[in-house]
């Protein structure tokens, strides 16, 4: 029962939790009794691998316990005094205190992302480019339908929508966002509530499902046994503050659903499939044709933005079968898919090459992706237009704008550390490699200082390509 789950820590942890629930013991009690490790379940949930002999001990313990050969004595969950329980309930109900459990390397990468997003202007530069592309949209009834993946901190989307709403102030807009975890959802919604106040004809749909499921807002995979939870949230009022308070009340329940586990291809797996649809109640009649409903089947989109939707280490088959093809197949006539990925020629990559001169940095350029994607489409490629082959149109630079002027100030440790973090995140360095270098000495910071001094700062280069569905007739 346990040994076959050795390479699937998220399912092993789920099996142990089911055992603990069945026998009414705490997870720490299970770990202590099975292998003398009270933190066992927590480590497995964090993505830690366990040795086969440890798994064998766990399997033997479970089998003996189920046969009644072991008397399980332990506490289920610690019961607090009533006054303490009331205090804790009050604290956990606060929006800012709610967190999702089960941290692992994915969460470490999200921490790196938040530093990256806060110290670079990628979100602003990308938003301005997307806003220009959206000017070419020719919306028809029932309005503009956008798809965005992966959900980030909401800055790119909010800045893009400001421009779109200013250009088409009376056009309904549906935005479907595929997220990874609660923090993405909270950061994004914290900004989008302002859009609801300024542009009442807005509908935002957030889901944590796989990309192919998120496009249709329909659960298709058997990875998770839980049924889809669909929330249709019509917000009262007309002020951002009104919407903020109502959205905040959702987070406690969503924190239990938007738990993520490490899955295959280094991709997160959701604990419970969730869809949250948010719009203004006073606009429901005007938006009735664009508000998604469960079970509607295949949906079409006018514009899909895929912002670093895969890793450079992913196989071409994964990119095509699980990312590009599903999105292209959901484009409406005239609809466009824009893909953003790192280009590989900038100070960030130079830093990584300086620290790991013999380490191969995975990179697949847009030319190879477009070539293989067109081949995979076969005869159907004639129905699409492909662009982004010229550097002048495809490449764009953004900067780490929090660094001081290099000719006036010596970089401090915090600036060097932030630049190092940003290089690791942008070049997609595996967390274990980073930790190995950082645990030895601080010479990696010398490489960072040398590269930043050489270039007078730090910048990054992205490349883009687009696929547009041709209009029939």
Short description:
By secondary structure, this protein is of the alpha/beta class. It has helices at residues 9-23, 27-35, 40-45, 52-66, 82-92, 105-119, 122-134, 155-167, 182-198, 211-216, 240-248, 251-257, 284-287, 316-328, 347-355, 366-377, 391-394, 413-427, 431-440, 443-455; strands spanning 144-149, 173-178, 202-207, 229-235, 260-262, 268-270, 274-280, 301-307, 331-342, 384-387, 395-399, 459-469.
Structural class of the secondary structure composition? alpha/beta
Q: Strand content of the residues, in percent?
A: 15-25%
User: How would the global form be characterised?
Assistant: globular
Number of discrete helical segments: 20
The largest β sheet comes out as: 10 strands, mixed
- Mean pLDDT across the residues is 86
- Helix share bin: 40-55%
**Computed Rg:** 24 Å
Beginning-to-end CA distance, first to last residue: 58 Å
pLDDT below 50 for ≥5 consecutive residues: which ranges? 75-93, 97-104
Counted beta strands:
12
Structure write-up:
The chain is α/β, with parallel strands linked by helices. Helix content is 46%, strand content 16%. The protein has 20 helices and twelve strands. Strand 2, helix 9 and strand 3 form a beta-alpha-beta unit. Helix 15 packs across helix 18 and helix 15 packs antiparallel against helix 20. It is globular. The protein starts with 8 loop residues before the first helix and ends with a strand.
């Amino acid at each position: 029962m346990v040994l076959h789950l050795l390479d699937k820590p998220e399912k092993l942890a789920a099996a142990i939790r089911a055992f603990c629930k069945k026998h009414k013991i705490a997870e720490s009690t299970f770990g202590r009794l099975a292998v003398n490790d009270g933190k066992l379940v927590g480590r497995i949930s964090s993505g830690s691998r366990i040795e086969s002999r440890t798994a064998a001990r766990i399997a033997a313990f479970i089998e003996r316990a189920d046969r009644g050969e072991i008397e399980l004595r332990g506490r289920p969950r610690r019961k607090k005094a009533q006054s303490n329980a009331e205090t804790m309930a009050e604290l956990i109900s606060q929006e800012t205190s709610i967190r999702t459990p089960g941290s692992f390397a994915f969460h470490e990468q999200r921490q790196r992302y938040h530093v990256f997003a806060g110290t670079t202007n990628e979100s602003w530069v990308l938003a301005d480019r997307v806003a220009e592309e959206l000017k070419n949209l020719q919306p028809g009834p029932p309005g503009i339908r956008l798809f965005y993946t992966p959900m980030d901190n909401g800055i790119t989307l909010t800045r893009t929508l400001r421009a779109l709403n200013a250009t088409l102030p009376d056009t309904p807009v549906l935005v479907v966002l595929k997220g990874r975890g609660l923090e993405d959802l909270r950061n994004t919604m914290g900004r989008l509530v302002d859009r609801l106040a300024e542009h009442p004809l807005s509908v935002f749909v957030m889901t944590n499902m796989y990309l192919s499921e998120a496009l249709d807002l329909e659960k298709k995979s058997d990875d998770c046994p839980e049924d889809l939870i669909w929330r249709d949230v019509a917000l009262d009022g007309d002020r951002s503050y009104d919407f903020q308070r109502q959205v905040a009340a959702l987070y406690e329940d969503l924190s239990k659903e938007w738990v993520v586990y490490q899955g295959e291809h280094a991709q997160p797996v959701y604990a419970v499939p969730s869809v949250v649809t948010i719009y203004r109640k006073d606009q429901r009649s005007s938006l009735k044709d664009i508000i998604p409903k469960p079970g509607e089947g295949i949906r079409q989109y006018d514009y899909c933005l895929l912002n670093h939707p895969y890793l450079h280490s992913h196989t071409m088959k994964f990119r095509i079968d699980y990312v590009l093809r599903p999105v292209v197949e959901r484009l409406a006539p005239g609809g466009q898919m824009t893909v953003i990925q790192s280009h590989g020629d900038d100070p960030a990559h130079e830093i990584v090459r300086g620290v790991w001169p013999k380490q191969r940095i995975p990179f697949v350029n847009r030319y190879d992706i477009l070539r293989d994607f067109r081949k995979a489409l076969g005869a159907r490629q004639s129905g699409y237009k492909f662009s982004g082959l010229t550097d002048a149109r495809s490449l764009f630079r953004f900067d780490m704008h929090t660094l001081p002027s290099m000719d006036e100030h010596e970089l401090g440790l915090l600036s060097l550390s932030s630049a190092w973090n940003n290089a690791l995140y942008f070049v997609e360095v595996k967390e274990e490699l980073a930790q190995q270098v950082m645990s030895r000495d601080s010479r990696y910071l010398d490489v960072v200082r040398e590269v930043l001094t050489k270039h007078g700062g730090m910048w990054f280069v992205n490349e883009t390509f687009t696929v547009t569905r041709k209009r029939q007739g």
